[in-house]
């Protein structure tokens, strides 16, 4: 079968298309005939550090396809997804609603499970509350916007591109702030009547972390999920943390085992899957590429040109 491999160098990640044997399912696994897979920034951008230097490894982390032997339509975490076949742990298996195409299904799993973890699992976002998303045009940012609106929350988003913000206004973004700098506190306070937001999703990283703290209201929560700026450090205002009873948490599957991931999978199936099945919640796909054009999709992600998810049809 054909499969892409990814390798991390000193400055960038590179892709190589190889001919390799079809994998065989072990205990607790199923073999998936992959129909579509989506790009996730953490794997493809060197600064995110998820692809370590060393030998090349199978590329891709989530997708959708048919279980070999049964034909069941599934989506989920799928290591090596940029291939004709890949193995999925049963812990990660999610049924695909009939309303979703293969491309839609491939754009859902990791992004929206991360969003469920942030907004519902740890963030406790409720209808009527305010959510601030830095870097709102990213894959996770757009998914957070769509899920928050489905939950009845109000959303403020930042982006350096006014063109991207205009697209997201059409998806329900309540307030758009064009900036890449930590200078959005005053606008956030004005929008929220001086109270601050209830939850922040920080896709940008350390350069805006302190500003995010400033924007939080009493008992506010802050989710750290991405590092678009490559900055991994910031100061913490301990007085604000203490007096406003803030909750700061990270969102990552990097160190979680199968049973721990399964908690989020089951939460997603319970809370979000019915919304996808009904059409109330849907991923935003920026562009769909053919399998042979994965390097082109990677280049678009590296250029930060997309709004929403990039998907490869296999």
Structure description:
The chain is globular. With 314 residues, the chain is an alpha/beta fold. The strands form three sheets. Strands 3, 5, 6, 7, 8, 15 and 16 form a seven-stranded mixed beta sheet that branches. Strands 11-10-9-12-13-14 form a six-stranded parallel beta sheet, with helices on both faces. A three-stranded antiparallel beta sheet has the order 2-1-4, with no helix packed on it. The longest helix has 14 residues, at 109-122. The protein is 29% helix and 28% strand. Strand 5 and strand 6 (73-77) form a beta hairpin. The N and C termini lie close together (12 Å). Helix 3 (109-122) packs across helix 4 (139-150), helix 3 packs across helix 9 (258-271) and helix 6 (185-191) packs parallel to helix 7 (209-215). It has two domains: 2-108 and 283-313, Quinone Oxidoreductase, Chain A, domain 1 (Alpha-Beta Complex); 112-250, 3-Layer(aba) Sandwich (Rossmann fold), CATH 3.40.50.720.
């Amino acid at each position: 079968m054909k499969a892409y491999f990814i390798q991390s160098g000193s400055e960038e990640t590179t892709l190589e298309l190889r001919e390799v044997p079809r994998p065989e399912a072990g205990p607790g696994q199923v073999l998936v005939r992959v129909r579509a897979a989506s790009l996730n920034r953490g794997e493809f951008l060197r600064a995110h550090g998820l692809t370590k230097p060393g030998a090349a490894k199978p590329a891709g982390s989530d997708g959708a396809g048919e279980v070999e032997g049964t034909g069941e339509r599934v989506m989920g975490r799928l290591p090596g997804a940029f291939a004709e076949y890949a193995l999925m742990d049963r812990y990660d298996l999610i049924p695909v609603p009939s309303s979703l195409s293969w491309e839609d299904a491939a754009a859902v799993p990791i992004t929206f499970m991360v969003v469920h973890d942030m907004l519902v699992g740890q963030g406790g976002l409720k209808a009527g509350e305010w959510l601030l998303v830095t870097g709102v045009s990213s894959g996770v940012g757009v998914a957070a916007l769509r899920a928050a609106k489905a939950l009845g929350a109000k959303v403020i988003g930042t982006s350096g591109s006014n063109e991207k913000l205009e697209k997201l206004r059409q998806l329900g973004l309540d307030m758009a702030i064009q900036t890449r700098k930590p200078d959005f506190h005053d606008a956030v306070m004005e929008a929220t009547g001086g109270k601050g937001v209830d939850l922040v999703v920080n896709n940008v990283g350390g350069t805006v972390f302190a500003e995010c703290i400033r924007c939080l209201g009493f008992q506010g929560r802050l989710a750290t999920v991405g590092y678009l700026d490559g900055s991994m450090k910031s100061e913490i205002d301990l007085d604000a943390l203490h007096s406003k009873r803030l909750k700061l948490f990270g969102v990552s599957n990097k160190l979680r085992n199968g049973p721990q991931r399964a908690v989020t999978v089951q939460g997603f199936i319970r809370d979000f899957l019915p919304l996808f099945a009904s059409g109330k919640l849907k991923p935003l796909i920026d562009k769909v590429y053919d399998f042979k054009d994965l390097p082109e999709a990677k280049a678009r992600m590296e250029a930060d040109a997309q709004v929403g998810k990039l998907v490869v049809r296999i």
